[in-house]
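Recall that a protein's primary structure is simply its ordered list of amino acids. Everything else, from secondary elements to tertiary packing, is in principle encoded there. The following example makes that idea concrete.
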Amino acid sequence: MHATLIHGDHDIRFEEVPDPVLMMDDDAIVRVVAACVCGSDLWPYRGVTHANGRIGHEFVGIVESVGTAVAKVKVGDFVIAPFYVCDMTCVNCRNGFSTSCLQGSWWGGDDRRGHPSDGGQGELIRVPLADGTLAVVPGPVDDALIPHLLTLSDVMGTGHHAAVSAGVQPGDTVVVVGDGAVGLCAVLAASRLGASRVVAMSRHESRQAVAREFGATDIVEERGEDGIRRIREMFDGVGAQRVLECVGTEEAMTQATRSARPGGQVGYVGVPHLGPEVKLQPLFSRNVGIRGGVAPVRNYVAELLPEVLDGRLRPGAVFDLELPLSEVAAAYAAMDERRAIKVLLRP
């Protein structure tokens, strides 16, 4: 089989590797039907963070084999894999934060017993803790649904987490900072939760079009002080009730916290690359709350999946380029150069 490996800055290769085998009795082997490149994959690709070896963490596929202790997942099931491994039985999983699973691990790292984990951009993947990690999709699965289902492995659940963390309620005013796939899904999530106005901060026409499709009522192209001033002008001179930060940089977090009105709430899901720490005094003086973190997307599948299946939720529009999995290096380049919002990969 073949899988994607990163060897250094801008060095992505689709290489031959050994087929995965069941290593623990709660493992499953999944044949990938679709995978994708995440914005967070671009940090090691650009050399901002270090990674070496298997990469990728979003995929859907068909179960090919299961260990003797796997009871819920069956051979032949179509499954969604979240961007992490979890058992869905520990106290943290039951409390809604499966990203803090007491037995959990990350794709491309080591599992709980020290075995190397596969990355998500390969032809076959060993899935630890299969009964918890994998969400089974009732079949049959139409091919047209696959892009939408794939977003539940990360970006749609992450955008939803931003909205939930910010406390979006019906009638709220919402600003979304970031027009990548997560930011666009955050627009969709805020609209789904009943926000009366949703502002997408975007300078890119193609991304603005998706944002409007997802329910954005307004587009703001300005950034920095001009962007903050524009948001405040739009909302009573004081800013929006809820702001969703979906980038992870210091600039984006500053934009978000200063666009929230006194008493407002920021939900943040951008992987932090902030530089200087967020200063508490400006938040304290304006009673602005900030909440969020790594999104427990596995916990959100039960809520979001039925709406994908019945057509109410169509987050797959964030995929604006599809390539063969063998051309994964081109997919990374397209996203790095902002020629694509998000790239769908099929074997």
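The first helix runs from residue 42 to 45. DSSP finds twelve helices and 18 strands in the chain.
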